[in-house]
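[09:14] KT: can someone run the structure on this one? pasting the chain below
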Amino acid sequence: MSLCRGCGAEATRTSARYQGKTLLGEVCPKCDPMRFAGVKVTDPSDRKIWAGTEVEPERYYDADSEGVMRAKDELRQDTWDAMKIDEEEEARELKRKTRRTQPMTPSEIAAAENYGKTVLRPVIEAGKRAP
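[09:31] RB: done, structure tokens below
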């Protein structure tokens, strides 16, 4: 049991909304019953890992004589496509998402120079001295 930070009632479950690390609000079934309507509650000990055949049975052929359900061609192709990731294209996509669009500020430049002098330079010098 925990206390709802919305209404202060004791509740077995609550729903909280965050923006970053800031709590925007929390509700329980007592103060917002519509949010919890129709939500099946299971005991955590009931949780299990579901096999693909149980989750998406339409993507598998019926069991063969050995009792094995084999993936249909569509699922096999989707799996293959997911595994066939072009590392260079993935790196380009990451760069597009995280690209800097503003020039560095003077404080960022100073911090980068300080990191180079205090962290990187000693490692480079130690590497030069190594046999």
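[09:33] KT: thanks! The chain is about 40% helix and 10% strand.
[09:34] RB: yep, looked fine to me
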